[in-house]
Amino acid sequence: MIPAVVGSVMVPAAMVLFALLPGKLSEARDFQAARPCAEVGGSAVENGDCLATRPATVLATEARPRGRDAAHWVTLGQDDEDLPPFRVRLRGEGPVWEKLAPGDQVTVATWRAAAVWVEAGNERQDSAERPGLGAVVRLAVGLALLIVGSVLLRASGWAHRRRAVRAPAVRARQVAVPAAATAVAVGIAVAAALLIANVLLALAVAAAGCAVAWAASARLLRRPA
């Protein structure tokens, strides 16, 4: 019952993650393809589809409690005094946020009106609004949930059929081999999601990894102990 219940939760959770992916992945691909505004012109600049940079002055930094972590904010003033200050939430404490102090000069990169990173000297730190990371992690987690949940559901059905026909007790290798194959399949799928920019290629690699791992598992189980 436990594998069936857990699998029944994991597979729908993966489906929900996948349903939320298309827009985020499309945005991530657009951002990865963005070029500096100095190299392009026309509609890319007008619509903010290029990477723009501008100088700014640090006015204040603030760390707000956020669950077990903290949200790291920096308030920046613009060179044009007619423009209001703006705030950027950075990811983590370093390497930029922990060194900032009021009066420091930084460079801010923006894409589609959102600040995507802040540079201070030779250091750069991404903002929480930078596209890409969340979508990639969501894809990796979704693939892991789908693979493990599917295996648990299949294992539950297999165990139920064995009980129905009063099959012999399950041997250790009948559990260890599929578990190892599942771990390999999850590792390949997560690595593909994190390392391959093309989504369709990442899914194809994940599917191929699952097929190879489970085919090897079935072949090992058919061999005499």
Automatic annotation (TrEMBL):
Membrane spanning stretches? 135-155, 175-196, 202-221
Q: Does the keyword Membrane apply?
A: yes
Which keywords fit this entry according to its UniProt record? Membrane, Transmembrane, Transmembrane helix
Q: How is this protein named in the record?
A: Integral membrane protein
